[in-house]
Amino acid sequence: MADKRLNKDQFFGKLAELDEAGLKTALWTLYWRGSAPVRERIESAIDPRVEAVRKVAAAAPPDADDVLQEVLDFVGLAGSGAYLGGDRRVSPKERSGWRFTFRRLADQSRAALAGPDVTSAGEALEALVDLAQQTKSYDLFRSDDPVEAARFVVSDAVGALWTRFVQEYGFAGFARRAAGQLYRWEERHGWTRYGYGWVAERERPLAEVVTQLLPTTDAWGQFADAYLVALDEAARTAPSRRSHYGQRAEDRTDALAMWHGRLLDRLAGSDHEDRLDRIVRHPTLTGPEQTFLQARLAEYRGDRDAGAVLIRKCLAVLPGHPEFRAFAEDIDAGAS
What we know:
The chain has helices at 8-16, 20-33, 36-46, 48-59, 64-79, 92-96, 98-112, 118-134, 146-149, 154-185, 206-211, 217-237, 249-255, 257-267, 274-280, 288-300, 304-317, 322-330. It is mainly α. 33% of the residues are buried.
């Protein structure tokens, strides 16, 4: 359809034919029947204070309670399979646009962290990270790779959350909250299903994220204490040898390998070294990665024979593991 709008001269010519009452009627008709953006522009034009108030409101963090409720509703519907189809609680339009809802809620949750209600904002972001991790193993949306589709970089979200925890609760409060989240959320190969794409290129291990928040050896020791509490809690609550979302304890240990290695590097030889003895033998952790940690600690303490025995056990399970092989070569531990 051709554009038949008046040009500027024609428009002003038409307005000149109207008296004040006619101008007011025309403006009122446009305001009352126009779209929301049009109404906002007219309100700003007739009262500049409206625009100032609107800018302040736009800059303010969203209400954390409102965001949390919407997040919980979204997560609950996703967990029940409502976004896969056949559920009247989710319209076809919402079902096809789930990734935009996910992204919007993630942005609002992070924005709400800047407000006064850090608890509710943190719960909202935590629920979304849990959902993202769950989608790696379970089909909750019609997508081959939900985290990639939603453009949700878990490590960035967690970094924002933990940084805010430090600001709001101090280091002890941060450690108490973050240690259990680290245990639950860390993934060795990221949170996308296939490990490539826009999101995968931007992800970082949570071991790197938390390292930036531990400035001193004492901070490492204090966080290790909180981590041990989280491991003890996981041992009490995990059924059999399963952990978060039904993962095998061995897989969870594998996911945490980088974190455990950093703990050993930072705490060995310090006043907090005794925490390592509990970690390397903790019942929540198992498999060759735990044995490898024991081997490294034994070698650090000068017991190379014990380290050799332990690394041979690791290689018997995973003979091609590059870190295991490199360590065995370093301490001259043959595979026989």
